[in-house]
Design brief:
Blueprint (H helix, E strand, L loop, with lengths): L2 E4 L8 H12 L5 E4 L7 E6 L24 E5 L10 H10 L2 E4 L24 E3 L20 E5 L4 H4 L1 H11 L3 E4 L15 E4 L4 H9 L1 E6 L7 H10 L2 E5 L2 H7 L4 E3 L4 H11 L7 H8 L1 H15 L2
Parallel strand pairs: 1-2, 1-3, 3-4, 4-5, 5-6, 7-8, 7-10, 8-9, 10-11, 11-12
Length: 309
């Protein structure tokens, strides 16, 4: 008898978060059945993306109930709520009552794992399952033969302050490197200052993204809070060297496969890497065995199934 799972698509999921859901569904075990009727499910899977319930802080309503109607549920915990949230007690109850909370990292801040900005949330009472996310090897893989690196730095992001976009641009200007900024059409806070090697691009499909990884020497996967795990994996799978902020949450899974830079001296450290030309070569078979959804997704589903027995 298969385990029947209700796993609704949250309207709040970003493109990257949807790839997480796609990977989990595509590579689920044969004894897991996704059902559309929550009343016919043995367990519910809920994506939590750090939104507030009344829309006052984020301008949009959360579509995951803080008081789930189902008794047996697990939570995919993508990112933390705003620090100035007004529903810490409700969120704490939701997470405590979940059979399992699946997350990329339990670190609540990237400077100290012992400090919490949410004192009312009893994170010690939550049944965590910490796991790296995965990549789909049918979508992200190296080019054969390898293509020339036409782009020096590929980066992503919408918010300059949290994704350090101006610092990346400044380092590229100082080293005269080409910078391609995906989602750049949606970001008006970064000051271009006429740099001719800075290229803005909007959202792209998976095939185009794979090609851009192929022709990019570095991928700057920067964010001052959780959220840039997938570009690290996808870039590695496609042969682009990820440069990652040196925070515990990223050391947790990527300690030996990326180049780390300190956030306090970011421009100088980026300049050193770009001038040195240092890259990391990771074998695709190694990546597939360690980080592909073929491996990660069944492991997550096994824990979900174990949680209801």
């Amino acid at each position: 008898m298969p385990i029947r799972v209700y796993y609704p698509v949250s309207k709040q999921l970003s493109i990257a978060m949807r790839r997480i859901r796609d990977g989990l569904v595509k590579y689920k075990p044969s004894d897991v059945e996704i059902v559309n009727d929550p009343r016919k499910a043995d367990i519910h899977v809920l994506d939590y993306v750090g939104q507030d319930t009344n829309g006052l802080l984020n301008g949009c309503l959360i579509d995951i109930p803080l008081k789930p109607m189902c008794r047996k549920y697990v939570v995919i915990y993508h990112c933390h709520p705003p620090v100035l949230c007004s529903f810490e007690e409700e969120l704490s109850k939701m997470l405590e009552n979940a059979l399992l909370v699946i997350t990329h990292t339990r670190y609540l801040t990237f400077y100290s794992p012992d400090w919490s900005p949410f004192p009312k949330i009893r994170f010690d009472r939550i049944n965590w399952f910490v796991t790296p996310w995965g990549f789909d090897p049918d979508i992200f893989y190296p080019s054969n033969p390898p293509l020339p690196k036409l782009i020096d730095v590929l980066t992503f992001g919408l918010v300059d302050e949290s994704e350090r976009l101006s610092d990346i641009l400044e380092a590229c200007k100082l080293t005269k490197k080409t910078l391609l900024h995906l989602c750049g059409y949606s970001c008006d806070s970064i000051k271009i200052n006429g740099y001719e090697k800075y290229i803005k691009c909007g959202y792209v499909d998976d095939n185009t993204l794979r090609f851009l990884y192929w022709v990019s020497k570095y991928t700057c996967a920067f964010r001052m809070h959780i959220g840039f795990e997938l570009p690290v994996l996808e870039a590695l799978a496609c042969g682009s060297t990820p440069i990652v902020l040196d925070f515990p949450c990223y050391r947790e899974h990527f300690n030996d496969v990326v180049l780390f830079v300190k956030p306090d001296n970011l421009v100088d450290e980026l300049v050193k890497i770009l001038n040195s030309g240092k890259v990391i070569h990771v074998d695709f078979d190694f990546m597939r065995k360690r980080f592909s959804w073929e491996i990660i997704a069944p492991r997550i589903w096994r824990r979900i199934i174990e949680s209801i027995k």
